[in-house]
């Protein structure tokens, strides 16, 4: 697995990341957070903007363990990428892919704006939020992700606000993997 290019860890706030190019990495990431589950992690007020990701595993994503705390007021803006495995990804149970609905780590007020590029497979976004602590305040503006081999991009979503501006094309299952090995 590739390492993240820029990763914001727990108990971080007021961060601005700008004008970065990432190759063969996890690009822009919040997390991992929530491990151990007994120790709360908090991330507030993070802006990623003017980012390029080339042949990366993800582009603009959030990964937590089933822990406690919160992630809020995050913006991914002007993110351009080429050949990214799964460009937008949110998981409350990273790596173990179990107890996804037990997470009490609230993810809220996240904006993805001007997100453009090609996905390696046919999934543009895989977003699964905990049933116990659903995601709220998600906003999507000017999302243009196309599979590099053509066809329609899938946007899989579960347990998030329905007024996000993102046209979900299907349900994202609990334990959805970070790394895809083919089309969904």
Question: Can you characterise this structure?
Answer:
- With 184 residues, this protein is an all-beta fold.
- It has one domain: Pectate Lyase C-like, CATH 2.160.20.10.
- 0% of the residues lie in helices and 56% in strands.
- The protein contains no helices and twelve strands.
- The protein has strands at residues 6-8, 12-23, 28-33, 41-54, 58-64, 68-84, 86-91, 104-119, 123-128, 139-147, 154-158, 170-171.
- The strands form two sheets. A seven-stranded parallel β-sheet has the order 1-3-5-7-9-11-12, with no helix packed on it. A five-stranded parallel β-sheet has the order 2-4-6-8-10, with no helix packed on it.
- The protein is globular.
- The model has no long low-confidence stretch (mean pLDDT 96).
Topology record:
Blueprint: E1 6-8, E2 12-23, E3 28-33, E4 41-54, E5 58-64, E6 68-84, E7 86-91, E8 104-119, E9 123-128, E10 139-147, E11 154-158, E12 170-171
Parallel strand pairs: 1-3, 2-4, 3-5, 4-6, 5-7, 6-8, 7-9, 8-10, 9-11, 11-12
Domain tally: 1
Please, how many helices? Answer: 0
User: What is the CATH superfamily classification?
Assistant: Single-stranded right-handed beta-helix, Pectin lyase-like
How does CATH name the architecture?
3 Solenoid
Mean pLDDT: 96
| Strand fraction | over 45%
Could you say which structural class the secondary elements and strand pairing correspond to?
mainly beta
- Please write the CATH class name: Mainly Beta
Sheet having the most strands: 7 strands, parallel
User: What's the end-to-end separation, in Å?
Assistant: 20 Å
Helical amount = under 10%
């Amino acid at each position: 697995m590739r390492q993240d290019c820029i990763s914001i860890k727990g108990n971080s706030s007021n961060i601005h990341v700008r004008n970065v190019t990432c190759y063969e990495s996890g690009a822009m990431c919040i997390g991992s957070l929530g491990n151990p589950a007994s120790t709360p992690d908090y991330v507030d007020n993070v802006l990623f903007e003017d980012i390029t990701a080339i042949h990366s595993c993800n582009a603009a994503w959030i990964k937590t363990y089933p822990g406690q705390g919160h992630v809020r007021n995050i913006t991914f803006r002007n993110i351009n990428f080429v050949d990214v495995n799964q460009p937008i990804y949110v998981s409350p149970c990273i790596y173990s892919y179990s107890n996804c609905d037990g997470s009490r780590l609230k993810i809220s007020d996240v904006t993805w704006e001007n997100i453009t590029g090609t996905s390696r497979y046919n999934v543009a976004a895989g977003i699964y939020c905990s049933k116990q602590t659903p995601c709220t305040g998600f906003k999507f503006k000017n999302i243009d992700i196309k599979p590099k081999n053509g066809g329609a991009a899938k946007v899989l979503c579960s347990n998030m606000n329905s007024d996000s501006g993102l046209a979900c094309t299907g349900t994202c299952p609990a334990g959805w993997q970070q790394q895809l090995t083919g089309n969904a």
